[in-house]
Structure to design on (607 residues):
């Protein structure tokens, strides 16, 4: 059998059997005795349909309708259709051909008629095979062209991947060189050690070697017994490790710690260091501490000097309520100016004067009677003013002094206003105190508050103010790339320029903080959601780098951008941690969305 199908539609069982007998040996034959069944066979669209024979002898109209159904499904080129009729009538023949019959056969259905039908079917089959072959050839050509294109693209892709691999290898080598140079030149020590057992050192950079005054890494490892415990001064070790684990488990940033301890250099000198650590577990399950340490000995000296300066200021403040004595031993008189009573809870006696005179080198005799006249302050019982202030000198420079005064009405009727006061020279003392305080509280590079001092000031403002408040976290986008591309001096210039703009923009009561390496915080009092906040944010985004020198970065406006996360609180009651968490989350969202933008969010209140 050829595998082709022939559909026979005939209302006569005998005719169906006769026609089927002719075709059964060569084709798959399907039959229907009704017009509806014939339509169903067409709708099924059997594969490899060879021909249709229509022989509805009872109704010429049904035969024509069946032929129309065939042509609604197939064109004359797509399927041969034969109409079998009983009488050779011109009208019937003409209608059959007009309706789309391939041929009209008049009964009886002879072998000659069957040959006509099979020849048409074979011709149709040959045409289908030719079309299929042409389609296969065309498809093969298309596929060959596609394969050639794919091969060409694959070759180009391979070339591109090779170039990218070469570039990536070069970039990796450059990055390794940069990393090595960075580790060598970073102003501090970097090391990694196991977070268990003997806390064995795994990595130590040249900065740590220099910090300990050792000759090389091997000398350092031998000196500290290749352990973190050998790095920390023995007297500080127990408290340091206890503080590290407390911060790792329950600190404000779990997994991180910041501790201060002392080290002993190889030459015996004691130095203070600040330790920034991160606890990490690698894929194998080994726990590590990654640590950066900075020498803060000078900072600790500044803080110590500041404490001593503050102590001196307190003592001087207590001593400012002076007692002035004018004692004439020969005249046996003593005048006391000042409130002795409020200082000692009693009046001054002759014995007190004699003792002081003896200490001053003016000997007195036991029988000497000295007339003590106590001049109580005219402002006794009145509130005294005691304040530090500045007065401009001839050049307009402010000069610090201590102003102490008492104001009181004068005259018999109290109608005259008068004050008595004095100015104490405190300029050098105040300038020294301000210098120490600035060095302890300020970031050396940018002049902004450091993190500890800034958090303290913001916390104090939140506790004392009524709101609204806004906290801005400003992050320098791709700061590492700036350092890697243009060098650390340009990165430092970018930090300084952003800090300078923030300080210039800040009003009295606002706080500008360098919160991290490339991150600043700006705390605004009396500013909440609204146009004023939007104006400040857009000013920072657009103008912080406005004056950045173009000879340092080719296109500062495009390459230097800022991401800003903002937290707002309209009323008092919010804590710094709540503002910090909200602003940090907003900054994270900005970074996820592509940087160079800002998001403002409202911080929840804790009470």
């Amino acid at each position: 059998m050829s595998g082709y199908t022939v559909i026979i539609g005939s209302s006569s069982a005998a005719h169906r059997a006769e026609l089927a007998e002719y075709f059964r040996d060569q084709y798959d034959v399907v039959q229907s005795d009704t017009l509806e069944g014939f339509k169903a066979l067409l709708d099924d669209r059997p594969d490899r349909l060879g021909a249709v024979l229509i022989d509805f002898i009872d109704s010429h109209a049904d035969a024509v309708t069946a032929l129309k159904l065939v042509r609604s499904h197939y064109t004359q080129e797509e399927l041969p259709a034969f109409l079998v009729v009983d009488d050779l009538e011109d009208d019937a023949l003409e209608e059959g051909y007009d309706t789309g019959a391939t041929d009209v056969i008049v009964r009886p259905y002879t072998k000659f008629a069957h040959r006509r039908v099979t020849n048409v079917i074979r011709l149709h089959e040959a045409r289908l095979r030719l079309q299929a072959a042409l389609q296969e050839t065309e498809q093969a050509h298309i596929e060959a062209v596609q394969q050639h294109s794919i091969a060409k693209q694959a070759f180009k892709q391979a070339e591109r991947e090779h170039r990218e691999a070469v570039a990536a290898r070069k970039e990796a080598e450059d990055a390794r060189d940069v990393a090595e140079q960075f580790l060598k030149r970073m102003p501090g020590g970097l090391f990694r050690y196991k977070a268990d057992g003997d806390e064995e050192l795994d990595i130590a950079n040249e900065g740590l070697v220099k910090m300990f005054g050792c000759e090389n890494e091997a000398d350092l490892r031998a000196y500290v017994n290749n352990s973190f415990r050998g790095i920390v001064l023995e007297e500080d070790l127990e408290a340091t490790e206890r503080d590290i684990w407390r911060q790792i488990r329950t600190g404000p940033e779990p997994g991180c710690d910041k501790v201060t301890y002392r080290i002993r250099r190889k030459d015996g000198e004691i130095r203070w260091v600040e330790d920034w650590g991160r606890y990490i577990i690698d894929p194998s399950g080994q726990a590590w501490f990654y640590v950066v340490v900075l020498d803060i000995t000078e900072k600790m000296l500044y803080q110590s000097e500041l404490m001593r300066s503050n102590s001196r200021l307190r003592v001087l403040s207590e001593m400012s309520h002076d007692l002035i004595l004018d004692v004439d031993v020969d005249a046996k008189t003593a005048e006391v100016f000042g409130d002795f009573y409020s200082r000692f809870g009693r009046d001054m006696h002759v014995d007190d004067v004699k003792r002081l005179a003896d200490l001053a080198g003016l000997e007195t005799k036991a029988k000497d009677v000295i007339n003590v006249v106590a001049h109580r302050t005219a402002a006794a019982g009145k509130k005294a003013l005691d304040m530090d202030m500045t007065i401009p000198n001839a050049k307009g420079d402010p000069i610090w002094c201590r102003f102490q005064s008492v104001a009181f009405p004068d005259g018999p009727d109290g109608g005259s206003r008068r004050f008595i006061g004095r100015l104490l020279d405190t300029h050098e003392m105040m300038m020294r105190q301000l210098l120490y305080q600035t060095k302890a509280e300020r970031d050396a590079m940018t002049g902004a508050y450091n993190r500890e001092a800034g958090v303290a000031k913001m916390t104090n403002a939140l506790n004392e103010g009524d709101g609204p408040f806004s906290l801005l976290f400003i992050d320098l986008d791709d700061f590492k790339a700036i350092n890697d591309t243009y060098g650390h001096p340009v990165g430092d210039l970018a930090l300084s320029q952003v800090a300078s703009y923030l300080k210039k923009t800040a009003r009295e009561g606002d706080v500008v903080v360098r919160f991290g390496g490339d991150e600043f915080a700006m705390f605004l009092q009396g500013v909440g959601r609204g146009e004023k906040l939007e104006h400040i944010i857009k000013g920072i985004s657009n103008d912080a780098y406005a004056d950045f020198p173009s000879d340092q970065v080719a296109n500062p406006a495009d390459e230097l951008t800022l991401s800003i996360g903002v937290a707002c609180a309209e009323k008092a009651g919010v804590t710094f941690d709540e503002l910090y968490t909200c602003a940090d989350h907003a900054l994270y969202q900005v970074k996820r969305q592509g940087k160079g933008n800002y998001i403002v969010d409202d911080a929840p209140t804790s009470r």
